[in-house]
Amino acid sequence: MSHTLTVLWTIEPQTPPRPWLACSRCRGARPFECSGKTRLNANGRRLDAWLIYRCADCDDTWNRPIFERQPVRDIAPETLDALQNNDSDWIRQVSFDVEGLRRNTDRIEEFAECRVTRRVIAHPLEVCIQLEIALAVPLPISMRADRLLSAELGLSRSHLVRLAEAGRIKLLAGARKALQRPIRDGMRVVLDLSEARDQGAIADRARGLFQPA
After folding, report:
1. Global pTM?
2. Which of 90, 171, 175, 205 is most deeply packed, by most CB within 10 A?
3. Longest CA–CA separation in the chain, Å
4. Is the Cα dihedral 81, 86, 87, 91 positive or negative?
5. What is the pLDDT of residues 147-171, one digit of tens each?
């Protein structure tokens, strides 16, 4: 008989990272926020494209390069369509590209706030004594694994560390000290609940059934 509850958590960050740049109006470094707008400029049969950011304090603008002097034939049709129509989904994807931002500044402010959507993959046939969580993280996020598990399962971070030291929680991420690392797409968490007095509450939280008092 299976005693394992398997769930898929899809993690969606809420706030795009903010690059800190020199603002000409504020005369100092300020955070810039994605405006949700693009700019496209044609030079013959070549295109320049930017994602427009605004200073959080004075509304001054910065054009983040997406590509420069790119031949039209080399641009994917869906990318060109997204740029021409300010496609919100495409812009959101680009706005979370932290590595792309690092080409323009070393100081980037990231936010850990996220929305967690749960889906049960497999129910235990009897009492749940093992929990397996698969993480889908389509956009980069700075949230650490221990913070996510603490918030969503109602366990303190110190408790999670003790479980890891006892071999009762494993993160199948191919990295040491994975609890202290940012979550990544494809990460899997396996938690042994056989000795947990509140195993039912933890399982309910994992599948989104827990209702706070």
Report:
1. 0.81
2. 171
3. 70
4. positive
5. 999 999 999 999 998 988 888 998 8
Q: In whole angstroms, give the CA distance from residue 72 to residue 89.
A: 22
Tokens 């989104």: give the residue. 208
Residue 16, token pair as written in the block: 């795009």
Residue 62: name the closest of 98, 88, 24 by CA.
Answer: 24
Sign of CA dihedral 145, 149, 151, 156: negative
Joined together, the tokens standing for residue 116 give: 């967690």
Position 174 pLDDT exceeds 70? no
In angstroms, the CA 198 to CA 211 distance is 14
| CA dihedral (86, 41, 94, 27) positive or negative | negative
